[in-house]
Design goal:
The protein is α/β, with parallel strands linked by helices and about 250 residues long. The chain has one domain: P-loop containing nucleotide triphosphate hydrolases (Rossmann fold, 3-Layer(aba) Sandwich). It has nine helices and ten strands. A six-stranded mixed sheet has the order 6-7-8-3-9-10, with helices on both faces. It has a four-stranded antiparallel sheet with strand order 2-1-4-5, covered by helices on one side. The radius of gyration is 18 Å and the shape is globular. It starts with 9 loop residues before the first strand and ends with a helix.
Length: about 250
């Protein structure tokens, strides 16, 4: 992985991703500026999450070019610690993404140690406070937490290595409405306080409207169009597919 100059925090050019003979993403290109939240929307199976997986190193068979903060990625190569420190992922299911037999303390201390951070006790206390979890939660297991508390732990685990980019894969869809609002508010606060860049996948247009600066609409592995978030209010889309998608979601 080489450091290259880049105009965006995330740069993706002509990305295609395969799973065997199936091409899940087809020649997608986009750039995400530092501090921006860029949303990927579209029907199930359109390739949204596959883009996140490719960036995170969870999909190896890809072509094109990708970089994060100027660090260029190599297809099939293991992500370095330096890269994984730059970019972290928050998954849809906060229970499935946490080790069921590890306490919150263990879940948070492990990545901090792997990345060579010192003062781990202080770091854990600080990141728990940052995500709204009191010290009483530190030695609980995931099954002893609510869904919202588990997602806060997942966010804290990502933040503890001080990343610049968070990949958010449907981060609130497994939560009830009131808890969704709390997590969205937390993500907005963290973005501003820490200067984070977000790449978000979601089906929920209200989440897109609340979090995103721009959005890209996907269909069958390709980008249909990219628009500023104001297009959600004005309906100023270029393509019939996008207009049909958003009309259906508004019903």
């Amino acid at each position: 992985m080489n450091k290259n100059p880049s105009s965006g925090m995330i740069e993706v050019q002509d990305l295609s991703v395969r799973y065997g003979d199936f091409v899940a993403v087809k020649g997608v290109s986009f750039s995400v500026a530092a501090g921006e939240t860029f949303g990927l929307v579209g029907e199930s199976g359109s390739g949204k999450s596959t883009i996140l997986q490719a960036l995170a190193g969870l999909a190896d068979d890809w072509s094109g070019s990708m970089s994060v903060d100027g660090l260029a990625l190599v297809a099939g190569a293991r992500r370095s610690l330096a890269f994984r420190k730059h970019l972290q992922m928050v998954f849809q299911d906060p229970y499935g993404s946490l080790h069921p037999h590890q306490t919150v303390d263990q879940i948070l201390s492990s990545p901090a140690r792997i990345h060579g951070f010192g003062s781990i006790d202080r770091r854990i206390a600080e990141v728990m406070e940052a995500v709204g979890l009191g010290p009483q939660f530190r030695f609980r297991l995931p099954h002893q937490l609510s869904g919202g508390q588990r997602q806060r732990v997942a966010i804290a685990r990502a933040l503890i290595v001080e990343p610049k980019v968070l990949l958010l894969d449907e981060p609130t869809s497994a939560l009830d409405a009131s808890v969704q609002a709390e997590i969205l508010n937390l993500l907005v606060t963290l973005r501003h306080e820490r200067g984070l860049t977000y790449l978000l996948v979601t089906h929920d247009l209200s989440v897109v409207a609340y979090l995103c600066d721009r959005l890209a609409v996907m269909e069958k592995g390709s980008f249909v169009e990219t628009q500023p978030i104001e297009a959600l209010e004005t309906g100023a889309f270029d393509q019939d597919y996008t207009r049909r998608l958003f009309a259906a979601a508004a019903r």
